[in-house]
Amino acid sequence: MSICRVLAPGTILLAMGLQQFERRLERMVEGVFARAFRGGLQPVEIGRRLTREMDLRRTVAPRGTLTPNDFVVVLSSADRDRFASIEDELIDELVAVAKDHAEVERYSFVGPVSVVMETDDQLAPGMVLVSGEMVRHEEALVSRLHLPDGRTLALADQVVTIGRLPDCTVVLSDPNVSRVHAQIRPVTGDGSSLSQYEIADRGSTNGTKLNGLPLTGPRLLASGDSITVGATTIGFERG
Fold it and tell me: Which terminus of the chain is less hemmed in, N or C, by CB atoms within 10 Å?
């Protein structure tokens, strides 16, 4: 009597994805070098561990199910040496496996997917540890100015000047704008990290408005604020 095992659609798609992952990696290692991959830890096992970590660490959120996007793969020194020549390609393929698995399971990431390899001399050959975290990378948290010509200016720790002078950070040809009209500067929280930005008028002829109201002194900016200098309006988005 034969036993037929029925697999869920998601399981079938995951298996197919891992098989494709394995075939792509096999094409990277040919000839004599390929013999090094016939025994010991196989790349597809790392892919399985990574997708398992995604399943174990998933979290239900109001807008769907979140899963880790930042992974650390720890190998023995012997296995790390075996994979050294294809490490960059292996990392790229693991990122692709994570994205494919998220699509199958309808998971969402809070930031870009990244994979790094590390070595643990205490691990025996054939062992692999995979850990995943949900990390909102800094590039997703950058505050920005939305300029009237459609450009976007990312803010950092520098003071941004707005005016007609060519030396200003934001140069406007608006005749109602003073040579150095206003400035946006970072406000530090604990002295080590940026927390907010503030807008201040620089003694301009026509003044500066925040959300339609004249500035009488420096004001903290909130996401969605509009800054008006002369007849020009600049939007602020806080990261």
Answer: N
> For 115-154, how does the pLDDT look when each residue is reduced to its tens digit (9 = 90+)?
999 999 999 998 999 999 998 755 446 788 998 888 888 8
What pLDDT, on a 0 to 100 scale, did the predictor assign at position 93? 86
Closest listed residue to residue 202, CA positions, set 236, 153, 162: 162
CA atoms within 13 A on the CB side of 28: 20
Q: What is the pLDDT of residue 5?
A: 41
d(CA 236, CA 225): 5
CA distance 68 to 55: 9
* Cα-Cα-Cα-Cα dihedral sign, residues 130, 5, 106, 91: positive
Supply the angle between the helices 43-56 and 87-105 in degrees, to the nearest 10. 40
Q: How far is CA 43 from CA 91, 118, 138, in A?
A: 10, 15, 30
Q: What is the mean pLDDT of residues 55-67?
A: 85
At 26, list the tokens. 């096999």
Predicted model pTM: 0.50
Q: What are phi and psi of 129, to 5 degrees?
A: -120, 135
What's the token pair of residue 2? Answer: 């034969």
CB 239 within 8 A of CB 175: no
